[in-house]
């Protein structure tokens, strides 16, 4: 199938700042290049202990990084639904009702407010609890119903990240591959560099080599130079 990205209004759900770039940085570059609208709904951000020399990345630092990445990609808007250490890496303690309502109706970038034609969210197979509950809450918010009463995006996708395969049992392979050119992958890498507190040297799931390798693998599977893989939850032609 061929998607005319110039006509799409895309709403991407990211549990944390950088997930949108890791999962669909190439797609964002391709879509904005074509003229699409792109909105990013982050779920949470807070201070995070890490393996950097400083040992922590602060919410203030990450807000600054978001602004740089937003300018780089020319997002139409972005928002954080549950900011602060009370929620960061603790979204599994938030009632599903509250998460789904924020996603569906209550956030300034909710599905009801933006009326997106395309929704993209993380895949449930992630080991990260914030990713899991975000995926499930988006799934709930997009439940089938009367499209005359509730907005139904034509396309609903789940993006993958390199570490999603780290789980018990077999993780399903993506069933939708979006072809990308080298410039789209270069843009993805450049955006990740702007997330300076989150990017790492190889071997790491957020290293440049990992991102390029996954794009090359998905491209090979599609017979093209590069691609990003997605799980199709709904496609209405």
Automatic annotation (TrEMBL):
Protein keywords: Zinc
Gene Ontology molecular functions: hydrolase activity, acting on carbon-nitrogen (but not peptide) bonds, in linear amides
BP GO annotations: glycoside metabolic process
One Pfam family from the record: PIG-L
Source domain of life: Bacteria
Protein's UniProt name: LmbE family N-acetylglucosaminyl deacetylase
Organism, scientific name: Murinocardiopsis flavida
